[in-house]
Amino acid sequence: MKILVVDDDPDLLSLVGFALTQSGFVVVKAIDVPSALQVFAAESPDLAILDINLPGGSGFDICTAIRRQSRIPVMMLTARGEEEDLVRALDLGADDYLTKPFSPRTLLARARALLRRAGLETGGSMTVGSLRLDLEAHLLHVGAAQPVKLTKLESRLLQILIANAGHVVGTERLLTHVWGHRGSGDRQLLKQLVHRLRQKIEEDPAAPQVLQTVAGAGYRLEEKG
Q1: SS3 142
Q2: Angle at the Cα of 93 from the Cα atoms of 21 and 53, rounded to 5 degrees
Q3: Per-residue pLDDT tens over the stretch 78-132
Q4: Is 220 left (phi over 0), alpha (psi -120 to 50) or beta?
Q5: Is the dihedral of CA 114, 116, 118, 122 positive or negative?
Q6: 133: burial class by Cβ within 10 Å (0-12, 13-18, 19+)?
Q7: Fewest CB within 10 A of the end CB: N or C in the chain?
């Protein structure tokens, strides 16, 4: 899992980055709004942790930009703890809110909880429309039909698509999530994986209505009613 951390306090940025890295997360960092948006576009993180007060704007601006294109979990950080900040953050689509100072253990627990709720950690099941994915057993339930067994790679691909249902997931992010780290996957292998998955979820795989290709961008999963 990859986490974007944005804060203009270098000490806090280092502390949070170290705690997350030690727990097995890949961490990408930014110190202001412009660089945060650049890193988000380039790295496609699975979770964003955003300070509110930043050079070049605010964490609210970043959250708004993220929500235009992604459903990844967003956690807001602030030293103020004011109710109006909390309300504004939640109205903009943030999923959680943490007031400074906080312990690394608390941050880690909240980050893991957000990833679990988004279906980006192993275990449990994920549902969108008539599709339900059993993450532990790698079983796909489509409506009332008999469950279909998925390979581990098919399950990982469907996992991230369900977590971002209705939104385009970029090719690079899919490669990173399915094969583990950047550059370890192959675009042709991804196309083959998408083709196999369509055989299991589409009524007519030759004319896909659920798992759609978005030319030049990636793939999008639409709800199957």
Answers
A1: strand
A2: 65
A3: 876 677 888 888 899 999 999 888 898 999 999 989 988 876 665 567 788 888 8
A4: beta
A5: positive
A6: buried
A7: C
Token pair, residue 48, equals 């964003």
Work out the angle at residue 60's Cα, subtended by the Cα atoms of residues 106 and 70, and round it to the nearest 5 degrees: 85
Sheet with strand 47-51: strands edge to edge = 26-30, 2-6, 47-51, 74-78, 96-99
User: Is residue 163 within 8 Å of residue 220, measured between CB atoms?
Assistant: no
Sequence-separated (6 or more) residues with CB below 8 Å from residue 160: 120, 169, 173, 174, 177, 178
Segment 130-156 shows an average pLDDT of 88
Q: Which residue has the tokens 């192993």?
A: 122
Which helix (DSSP H) or strand (DSSP E) does residue 66 occupy?
helix 59-67
Please indicate whether residue 166 or residue 7 has the higher confidence score (pLDDT). 7
CA distance 183 to 170: 14
pLDDT at 198: 95
CA pseudo-torsion sign 29, 33, 36, 40: positive
